[in-house]
Amino acid sequence: MKFIPLSSPDIRQADIDAVTEVLMSGMLVQGINVNKFEDSFCRVTGSKSAIAVSNGTATMHLALIALGIGKGDEVIVPAFSYIATANVVELVGATPVFVDIDLATFNIDVSKIEHNISKKTKAIIPVHEFGLACDIEKVMHIANKYNLHVIEDAACALGATQNNKSVGTFGTFGSFSFHPRKAISSGEGGIVSVQDSILDRKIRILRNHGIEYVDGSMEFVEAGFNYRMTDFQAALVASQMTRFNEILTTKRSLVDGYYSLINCNRVSLPTVPYDRPHTWQTFHVLINESINRDKLIQAMKDNGIGTNYGAQCIPAQKYYYKKYRLNSGEDYPNAWKAYKTGLALPIYEKLNSGQIEYISEIINKLTK
Ligand SMILES: *Cc1c(COP(=O)(O)O)cnc(C)c1O
Questions:
Q1: pTM
Q2: What does the pLDDT read at residue 326?
């Protein structure tokens, strides 16, 4: 049997044709295809506006700068996420304040947010981890009570909703990534959704060297970045966007297979709250502590299956524990546990039900 990788993007002929057309046109940098992609993203998510940029991390970096968050400010982030969620806070000179997660959903434990809010807190960056919306309604309730901005890290959660409203449209900003590990990909790429027109303008200026067009002439009004997306990347991801619902349906039926076939009581499967359908960017299980997770990853590999841990316990990474002297095991026990015992299994459009059966059979056997 051929090796089953943990993830694999599905690039089809139509996607390749869309890219080729842009390459042949000679118009490579940000142009009409970026505009069209921004429009189609807004139609799919219901966002008022969206700005496509060079990657998911850049979206959050720009959002923090547009809000004027920097030195002396605190930003609340979950202790378990991809490291970029905290790095962007460091990059603007602010301080990340970590909050532990809920082990059933791997999302921020909303009940632990309030006592981490101080006079210095300016924003919350909740993550919709692994493609499942966090309880963003409750996060917004807290944010409104304390007058805080919310930047939703929806990097891996395109299509996720709470009560039928798209992630990325609750907060001041929503941040999405199109890295090949996400549902649709432009290679590198991201988009930031925004509902406020003044902030929308700020982000567009910061994306493109601080340029503003006033009465048709160009002025440099900020010290901006070059965080633009290229037009062929936009064409690539826009082409995949047209079959996004199909991708979601396929992944959901593959995951149903995992739920019915994985039956070892030393593997716990994720919980999906009734008001928040999962989009399964990652299928992430917890392995009982009696089993060595890292040895299990190796054993799965020996059986032809790629798996890995799901995300980092951020305060346990060298830069953060050295700077803030944090003890993750004590201070963030759930994030620590998810980091040490979590396992991401293959889930993507190109898998078939036979492969899901095989993966389930092997994991049942190895964890028995
Ligand atoms: C992928 C990811 C990012 C980073 O996105 P890039 O496009 O790789 O910069 C940030 N946060 C989360 C939760 C992610 O999954």
A1: 0.97
A2: 86
